[in-house]
Structures are given as structure tokens and as C-alpha cells.
Amino acid sequence: xxxxxxxxxxxxxxxxxxxxxxxxxxxxxxxxxxxxxxxxxxxxxxxxxxxxxxxxxxxxxxxxxxxxxxxxxxxxxxxxxxxxxxxxxxxxxxxxxxxxxxxxxxxxxxxxxxx
Length: 115
What we know:
By secondary structure, this protein is α+β, with helices and mostly antiparallel strands. It is 17% helix and 36% strand. It has a single domain, classed as 2-Layer Sandwich (Alpha-Beta Plaits). It has helices at residues 27-30, 58-67, 79-84; strands spanning 2-6, 14-18, 41-43, 49-51, 54-56, 75-78, 91-99, 106-114. It has a 4-stranded mixed β-sheet. The longest helix has 10 residues, at 58-67. It is globular, with a radius of gyration of 14 Å.
């Protein structure tokens, strides 16, 4: 199950909701229909506020900050997402603890290697 829509907030681009984190290493092609466009993605799990046709809240802000650490063609996830996919076939590499702009402390981040 998935739903995708454009966000009205600057810098947030397109949001994609999935029942699982299965998009994994293939999302660079599959999620965009194989048109050769490289994307970067940041994933976090948390409570999201629905605001009309848009979303907001701290979880959305955290995901946006995590996305900012990703390079072209990369998917970076929070420790929360790592914990949720434990036991699956998603392979992650440790990116270490990093400060995220506007958030307190350091956040453990992981790059999606493959699935």
C-alpha cells in the first residue's frame, strides 16, 4: 500500500507513504518509473499531522533533516526506522551520529545499501 503526493511546503518535494520500508535500494529507479532520475530520501517514523492536503509535525521535520544528509541516489534512515526493519532483508550501513539542524542532540543515521 502506498500513496504519494506533492507537499506544499518548500524543500519537502514529494512524500511517499509505504506500509513497509521495502522500497530500499531499488527506489532510485522503481519509485520513479525507471526514468533515470536520481533522488535522495530521508526516512523517519513518527506521528504526522494532517493539515488539509499537506502533512507536518516533528516527524516530517526530522525526515526532511535526515534527507538533507543524503547524497544523490541515497536513502538515509533514522535509528527508529532501523529498529522497525530489524529482521527484514533491508541492509543498512552505519552513518554514525550526526547533529540535525534545528533538533537537539545527535541522531544515529543509517544508509540503505540494498534489500
